[in-house]
Design a protein that fits this description.
Blueprint (H helix, E strand, L loop, with lengths): L7 E3 L2 E3 L3 E3 L15 H12 L4 E8 L19 H13 L3 E7 L13 E2 L13 E2 L2 H21 L3 E6 L4 H6 L14 H4 L1 H13 L5 E7 L10 H13 L4 E5 L16 H11 L3 E4 L5 H9 L5 E4 L1 H5 L3 H8 L19
Parallel strand pairs: 3-4, 3-12, 4-5, 5-8, 6-7, 8-9, 9-10, 10-11, 11-12
Antiparallel strand pairs: 1-2
Helix pairs in contact: 1-2, 2-3, 3-6, 7-8
The protein binds flavin mononucleotide (FMN).
C-alpha cells in the first residue's frame, strides 16, 4: 500500500488515509453564519473524493471575530442543526471532519461590530483599530470558544482544531508584535502563552477525552520583532503539555510581508516540531503531487499532509492519486468506469 493511502489512528480518530483538506474560508454564509448549499456541495464533493480528513474552514466563535460578514459561524445554538447535517453528509460519504474554531481579533472584518485584540493596534491601514481586550472581553471570548467546542461536539465533528495561526486572535496574543500588554497576558513568552493555554483548557474541558484536539500554528513570523521558531517550539511544547494532540504547522500571517514560497516550504518546521516534540504533525504549503506526499510520509517527515488549493482545483485529487499509485480499490463504485484498471 502507498504511504499516502495508509490509514492513521489517534484516540477516536480513524482516518482512511493521510490526505487532509486544509481549512479554507468560503465566505458563503449569510449574516446568520448558517451552512448553505455551497458548503454541503463543496465539502460533500471532497468526501466523495475520499479526502481522509476535511478540516472545515475557520468558523467564528463570536460575531465580532468574523473575518467577513459571510463567515460560517458556531456562536449560536441555532447553527448546530446545519453543521450536524453537514457532518453526517461527510460521514456518509467516507471522510472524517474536523472544525476549525476561529476568532479574527484585529484581523476580523465583521461588518457593524467593533473588533477586539490584545492591544489596540490596527493590523494595517485597511483594518479598523481594535479595542484593547479588558478582562471581561477575555472571559467572554474564552466562553465563546468553550460554547463553540460544545456545539462542535454536539454536531458530531471527529476533531476540533483551534486557529492559532495566520495573525488571528490566538496568534495575536502569542506575538510580541501584536501583544504589547503590560498585564499577565503580555510581556514574556510565558505570559503571552496564557490566553492560548486558557483557550485550550476551556475547550478541552468540554471535549470527550478521546476526541482529538488540534491547533494550527504559524511556526515563524517572517519579520523582525515577532517570535522566533525557538519560541514557537516552546509554545508548541506547552500546547502538547496542555493536551493538544496534533500540531497543524503553517507560517506567517501576522505581518504584511509576503514570504518567498516554493513546494513544501513549510515542511521543515513541521518535521522539526515532530522530531523535537514527538507529536503528530500536519504539513502544508504548495503540496500538489502524489509523489511529494509519498516522500513526506514515507520518510516520516510528517504524519499527515494538508492540501489547500490543489483540492479546490480538483475535488478528486485523492482518487486521481490512488489511480496513479495503482490503488483503484478506493474509487467509489459509481466512478469506477472513469478509472478502468487496464489502461
Ligand atoms: C481560499 C482560501 C481560504 C483559506 N482559509 C483558511 C482558513 O479558514 N483557515 C486557515 O487556517 N487557513 C486558511 N487558508 C490557508 C490554507 O489552509 C493553506 O494553509 C494555504 O492555502 C497553503 O496551502 P496550499 O498551498 O496547499 O493551498 C486559506 C487558503 C485559501 C486559498
Amino acid at each position: 500500500m502507498s504511504f499516502l493511502l495508509a490509514p492513521f489512528s489517534l484516540k477516536s480518530l480513524d482516518l482512511p488515509n493521510r490526505v487532509v483538506m486544509a481549512p479554507m474560508c468560503m465566505y458563503c454564509s449569510g449574516e446568520d453564519g448558517l451552512v448553505t448549499q455551497w458548503h454541503r456541495i463543496h465539502y460533500g464533493a471532497r468526501a466523495i473524493g475520499r479526502v481522509g480528513l476535511i478540516i472545515q474552514e475557520a468558523t467564528a466563535v463570536e460575531k465580532r471575530g468574523r473575518l467577513s460578514p459571510n463567515d460560517l459561524g458556531i456562536w449560536d445554538d441555532g447553527q448546530v442543526k446545519g453543521l450536524k447535517e453537514m457532518v453526517e453528509l461527510i460521514h456518509e460519504n467516507g471522510s472524517k471532519v474536523a472544525i476549525q474554531l476561529g476568532h479574527g481579533g484585529r484581523k476580523a472584518r465583521p461588518g457593524k461590530q467593533g473588533t477586539i485584540a490584545p492591544s489596540g493596534i490596527a493590523f494595517s491601514k485597511d483594518f479598523s483599530t481594535p479595542g484593547e481586550m479588558e478582562n471581561k472581553d477575555i472571559k467572554s471570548v474564552l466562553n465563546a470558544f468553550k460554547e463553540g467546542a460544545e456545539r462542535a461536539c454536539e454536531a458530531g465533528y471527529d476533531a476540533i482544531e483551534l486557529h492559532g495561526a495566520h495573525g488571528y486572535l490566538i496568534h495575536q496574543f502569542l506575538s510580541p508584535h501584536s501583544n504589547r500588554r503590560q498585564d499577565k497576558y503580555g510581556g514574556n513568552l510565558e505570559n503571552r502563552l496564557r490566553f492560548p493555554l486558557e483557550v485550550i483548557k476551556v475547550v478541552k474541558g468540554v471535549m470527550p477525552s478521546e476526541k482529538v484536539l488540534m491547533i494550527r500554528i504559524s511556526a515563524v513570523e517572517y519579520f523582525d520583532g515577532g517570535y522566533s521558531f525557538a519560541d514557537m517550539l516552546r509554545a508548541a511544547g506547552a500546547f502538547i503539555d496542555a493536551g493538544v494532540d496534533v500540531l497543524d504547522v503553517s507560517t506567517g500571517g501576522a505581518g504584511l510581508s509576503a514570504p518567498r514560497v516554493w513546494p513544501g516550504y513549510q515542511v521543515p518546521y513541521a518535521q522539526k516540531i515532530k522530531e523535537e516534540l514527538g507529536a503528530p504533525v500536519i504539513a502544508c504549503g504548495l503540496l500538489t503531487e502524489p509523489g511529494m506526499v509519498e516522500e513526506l510520509i514515507g520518510n516520516q517527515r510528517t504524519d499527515l499532509v494538508a492540501l489547500g488549493r490543489a483540492l479546490l482545483r480538483d475535488p478528486n485529487w485523492v482518487l486521481n492519486a490512488a489511480s496513479e499509485l495503482g490503488e483503484n480499490n478506493i474509487i467509489p463504485k459509481p466512478y469506477k468506469r472513469a478509472y478502468p484498471e487496464d489502461i
